[in-house]
Amino acid sequence: MGNNLHLKRNNSRNFFTVAPGIWGMKDIFVNIYMIMNPFDGNWVLVDAGLFTSYSKIKKMAARLFGDNSQPSAIILTHGHFDHVGSLQKLAEEWNVPVYSHYLEIPYLTGKSSYPPGDPTVGGGLMSLMSWAYPKHPINIWNHINILPENETVPGLPEWKYFHTPGHSPGHISLFREGDGVLIAGDALVTTKAESAFSVMLQIKKISGPPKYFTPDWVSARQSVKTLMKLEPKTVASGHGKPMYGKEVRKSLHKLSEDFYHLAVPVQGRYILEPAVSDASGVIYIPPSNFNKKRMVIKLLSFVAVSAAAYVLLKQKSKNKRRQEILSYEIW
Ligand SMILES: [Zn+2]
Ligand SMILES: [Zn+2]
Predict the structure, then answer these.
(1) DSSP 257
(2) d(Cα 84, Cα 216) in Å, to the nearest integer?
(3) How many Å lie between the centroid of ligand 1 and the Cα of residue 203?
(4) How far apart are the CA of 208 and the centre of ligand 2, in A?
(5) How far apart are the CA of 305 and the centre of ligand 1, in A?
(6) Domain of 29: which CATH number?
(7) Which of 67, 76, 228, 296 is deepest in the core (most CB within 10 A)?
(8) Considering every ligand atom, which ligand is closest to the CA of 187?
């Protein structure tokens, strides 16, 4: 099976290897992961991407594990729209159990919407657009299961999960202690998620959770601390490429120590007080001074200025790498 797997992996450009038995795939701007159980050859899907991810996930599964292969379970790091986009379709077709933390259940069973995104946090186009991101719940009540209380991960005996709230109430991260692999979801990410350029070009940077969709910064800080203490050797997250070794250690410590400066936005709806939720869903959202009209004007001028700057840069510089760096700074 090993050789077979190796050949299949080399024939595909759709996905990447994170570590032994772990593969990832980026769909537009978000990652999904497939993890093999070495003891029985079964596998688990971690998150379900966007609604466009369905056929890509199926294709990846077929290439890695054989035609019509299906996982023993689907594990959700959290229920944001970019992590559950193809979930309903896959869960129904495969008829496999889906697991999440109990505090995430209201958003997966049609009970509660997430707090709205915050387009005022700055950092780039992804933030500016966040007022338009879906926050309504999906409903997979007939497939959803609560993760075991003892932090074990169904279908993955080598792994443990950790509750890492802040980005969402029931957010979890997965850790394989044997070789220090962390699947962090969006508790922290390996690119600057607020910047469209950074996300599209996959520029590596250990960062806090996406600023525009994080409604509780005190919990988010505590979660990064929890993950830092695990001393992971590999970090793969919901957005960005996997990062390894010293690069991870150094920047994760820095992020944890200087969280308020490096991760928390200077301004925003959820800075002074968080959105509050319980097992029934969201129960309080701080008021917003967001003005949609003003934001659309800002967005249009932002796109116009950025496009003009990009054209200028393209003309002036023939050095591709330099173009990328300058564009990144501007966006
Ligand atoms: Zn998220
Ligand atoms: Zn995400």
Answers:
(1) H
(2) 21
(3) 19
(4) 12
(5) 29
(6) 3.60.15.10
(7) 76
(8) 1
Indicate the pairing of strand 156-163 with strand 152-153.
Answer: antiparallel
CB contact set of 245 (below 8 Å; sequence gap of 6+):
233
Supply 168's token pair.
């969402």
Full domain range(s) for residue 199: 2-284
Distance from residue 239's CA to the centre of ligand 1 (Å) = 9
Coil, strand or helix: which one is 193?
Answer: coil
Indicate if the pLDDT at residue 304 is higher than 90: no
Ion ligand 1 nearby residues (CB, 5 A): 80, 186
- 86 CA to middle of ligand 2, Å? 14
> For 153-186, how does the pLDDT look when each residue is reduced to its tens digit (9 = 90+)?
999 999 999 999 999 999 999 999 999 999 999 9
Angle, helices 245-257 vs 217-229, to 10°: value is 140
- Determine the distance separating the centroid of ligand 1 and the alpha carbon of 27, expressed in angstroms: 14
With a CB cutoff of 8 Å and minimum separation 6, the contacts of 90 are: 45, 48, 54, 57, 58, 74
Task: With beta carbons less than 8 A apart as the criterion, state whether 266 and 216 touch.
Answer: no
How far is residue 209's CA from residue 194's CA, in Å, rounded to a whole number? 10
Is the confidence at residue 89, as pLDDT, over 50?
yes
The number of angstroms, rounded, from the C-alpha of 29 to the middle of its chain's C-alpha atoms is 9
| Statement to judge: residues 132 and 182 lie in one domain | yes
Ligand nearest to the CA of 237: 2
The residues near 105 (Cβ < 8 Å, ≥ 6 apart) are: 111, 144, 146, 170, 279
Same domain membership, residue 248 and residue 301: no
What's the number of domains the chain is made of? 2
Distance, CA of 51 to CA of 55 (rounded, Å): 9
In angstroms, how far is CA 192 from the centroid of its own chain?
12
DSSP code of 52? G
Distance in angstroms (rounded) separating the CA atoms of residues 7 and 320: 33
Residue 329 has pLDDT above 50, yes or no: no
Instruction: Check if the beta carbon of residue 196 is closer than 8 Å to that of residue 331.
Output: yes
From the CA of 79, how far away is ligand 2's center (Å)?
9
Rounded to the nearest whole angstrom, what is the distance from the C-alpha of residue 212 to the centroid of ligand 1?
10
